[in-house]
Amino acid sequence: MLAMHKLLASIKKEFLLLWNDKVGLLLMFAMPLLLVFVITIIQDSATRIAAENKISILAVNHDQGKSGAELLSRLTESGMFEFTHEDHLKKEDLNQELLSKGRLMALYIPSDFSARLAAGAEEISSIMLRDLGLEISDAMISSPPKTNVAFYFDPVLQENFTTSVQNIIKAFITNVETALVIDQLYEDTEIEVKPDELKSRMLANRVEIDMYSAGRGGSGMRPNSTQHNVPAWTIFAMFFMVVSLGGNVVKERNSGSFLRLKTMPTGFFLVIFSKMFVYVVIAVLQVVLIFSVGILFFEKLGLYRLTIPTNYTAFAVVVLLSSLAAVSYALLVGTWARSLEQANGFGAISIVLFAALGGIWVPTFIMPDFMQVISKLSPLQWCLQGFYTLFLKEGNWVDLKWVILSITGFILTCHAGIYLRLRSDNLV
User: Which of 236, 221, 389 is nearest to 306 (CA)?
Assistant: First the structure.
């Protein structure tokens, strides 16, 4: 009974100390919430731009035939592009046009675009007829010079985005070229019927792609920016309490509080446990606050609503283990640091590195192979996989097995490090 009374008194003391630290509370609640809002809004906008908004491109068409206009027409009809036509510009003007007027992309179609596409279509038609056994002059099969369209883009655009736009334009050029080949083939075989029906059938997309999100529940839920970002940045916020808790431990040790505890009948680990209990509660409250905002307010801002996993028990276990991991690491940093500057500096930098390696900022699958191996050392990666297994994959306990074991191992390792440090300082 006496031990329980001491424990409750110690926990109350820690809560009062934390309550008086208004700046620390602000950092642990308001700043993470703002971070989740900003990152989710930015990434949601980035992911929706290609799906819901048209890509604006400056078009300069100098083609003397019909193929250039047809290409731009097909691109416009796709619904993905919005063209601003300024055919009076010269090719050499486009670089300055993008630099001085803030345009992001430009497409230049040369004057011989139609002529060279027609020559290429004639070559393909001749080869087809020759393979069918008809006598064709070798001159008709000679390879015509290739034509080049020019695609300009602002260097601020990411490479994967510009490459995607370039590949789409290439696909539509192939579409236009295929139509020319069909026309040329009909002309060479002297078939008087127009090939409109054949072209429409050949150019029609006959394959529809059904997209499914792999998951245990079979709901086919499409992951979105909210499901990705809210758990990820909540984990980052939980671990960033190292600045507050780690600094708190350093200040108490340097002020002599730890030494005074040795002269008292209170067990030293009672103090460590009380700190751990208080900050685990804070970490859980961070999760509750940020996730509640995602559920209740994100839709009102035009974002996707956060969907909580249906396996509530597994969800609670992952939240608790992630909280324990964050608090344990903060205590480890606080016990090993010699000064407040060391605790804050090393703690903050290490969490930023763990976040970068652990897939909080960028997905680990796009990292080089050796970085993917290193990322497995990040505790934030284990916690993130736990949340993603539940939020995105509708996973079960079997899927969480290695996540739970990894986080538990990390927590035990942290406490072993805490014990060794306190023992070396004769504090236990």
Answer: 221
pLDDT of residue 2: 46
CA distance 342 to 321: 26
pLDDT score, position 381: 93
Which tokens is 77 given?
Answer: 């009809």
Q: What is the dihedral of CA 275, 277, 280, 285, to 10 degrees?
A: -110
Classify 267 as helix, strand or coil. coil
Instruction: Count Cβ atoms below 10 Å from residue 424 Cβ, excluding itself.
Output: 11
Q: Calculate ∠ Cα 72-75-78, nearest 5°.
A: 150
Find the length of the chain. 428
Q: Report the run of H or E that residue 427 belongs to, with start and end.
A: none
Per-residue pLDDT of 339-370, as tens digits, reads: 888 888 898 899 989 998 888 887 787 788 88
Tens-digit pLDDT profile for residues 274-308: 888 888 999 999 999 999 998 998 888 888 888 88
Nearest of 2, 41, 7 to residue 270 by alpha carbon:
7
Low-confidence ranges of the chain (pLDDT < 50): 2
DSSP assigned state of 91:
G
What local confidence, expressed as pLDDT, does residue 351 receive? 92
Closest CA to 268 of 420, 419, 415, 428: 428
The pTM for the full model equals 0.71
Long-range contact list for 69-77, CB < 8 A, 24+ apart?
70/176, 70/179, 71/109, 71/113, 71/172, 71/173, 71/176, 72/107, 72/109, 74/172, 74/175, 74/176, 75/168, 75/169, 75/172
Question: b vs e for 66-102, b when ≥16 Cβ sit within 10 Å of the residue's Cβ?
Answer: ebbbbbbebbeeeebbebeeeeebeeeebeebbeeee
DSSP state of 143: P
227-229-234 Cα angle (round to 5): 110
Q: Which of 350, 371, 348, 349 is nearest to 359 (CA)?
A: 371
Distance (Å, rounded) from C-alpha 401 to C-alpha 421?
31
Q: How far apart are the first and last CA of the chain?
A: 23
C-alpha distances out from residue 388 to 128, 232, 240, Å: 53, 9, 20
Q: Which token pair is 96?
A: 């300055």
> 60: which DSSP letter?
E
CA–CA gap between residue 77 and residue 231 (Å, rounded)? 39
